[in-house]
What does this fold into?
Amino acid sequence: MFKRRCFAYFVSVLILMLSVVSPCAISQEELTSPSAILMEPTTHKILFEKNANEQRACASITKVMTLLLVMEAIEDGKIAYDDIVTTSEHAKSMGGSDIWLEVGEQMTVDEMIKATAVASANDAAVALAEHLCGTEDEFVAQMNVRAKELGMENTVFKNCNGLDEEGHITTAYDVAIMSCELIKHEKIFDYTTIWLDTLRGGETQIVNTNKLLKSYNGITGLKTGTTGDAGSCITATATRDSLSLCAVVLGSTTGTERFKDAATLLDYGFANYEILSFDAKSEKLSKIAVTNGMRDSVSLSCTGNSNMIVAKGSADKIEQKVDVKESLQAPVKKGQKAGTLTFTLDGNTVSQFDIVTTQEVEKISFSAVFCELLSALVAL
It folds into this structure.
């Protein structure tokens, strides 16, 4: 009896130790979807991936880029929320999920965004595209330009709403990148967190296609999509405490499976990771020597803010290293790099800042010395 109790105690202690030191991992086999990724939005750190760079159709996830261009245009003052958008014959002809716009029907940009983000309305997406760029083709060209700017190397857009079309492809990684860019515009959450709303003065009811809004703690969006070529897809964003995550699932067989996989990814992220913030401005740095300059030293500063995504419980293991040159040769420019401030965890860099000079230092010369002396005499 005593031996059995000792053995049971030993096993319980071992299980407790493993639960403390080992993160709750997930395997690729646990996800039914063929392609998926989990990313932290501010650092773009990948926390999990499964065939994340495999090119696939993504259905209405396409509208993430459409909404990104619209939000950027509003921020740049090119269009406004209360602008009137008039429906064209082309926009009306979309089919699929829509809000049944009629030719000549008018709604505000705000209403069209709501229809696109909540009801995944194909007609509203095209109406927005035409309002911003004149034609959908021109808007799609801008979508592809923006995709390249964001480093979405495996994405080609053929339309602005995600209807199946030959060559309209992306990857889970690229979807995560554009999703992280969209949620920089926090106003988008005013739309993506709506569960039930109306348009046309209450005549048309719209329901969000993202069922996680009703079941997942901290969910903030972002977009679902389903077509024959793409299967069931989702890019899901959520925030708990100070940690935000983006989970992308492409090609699920059913809507239920895509929501389950997205929740599994988000659960894994929240259970195992935390975000640490660091303000480099708080660092105190010594001066650096200057040779052949009008001053023999110059002050240094390290500016910027950074988030570090780390495994829970590893914050105390982060090491800080300041690496500064022994001296600088005059002339020295203000803002000239003089070194780096690096944070590492288990030998891997998690964040790095440039250390720079705070002022200019002129090279010593007869004219420079003369000017200094003249200034000193005038001051007397």
Observations:
- Residues 1-23 have pLDDT under 50 and may be disordered.
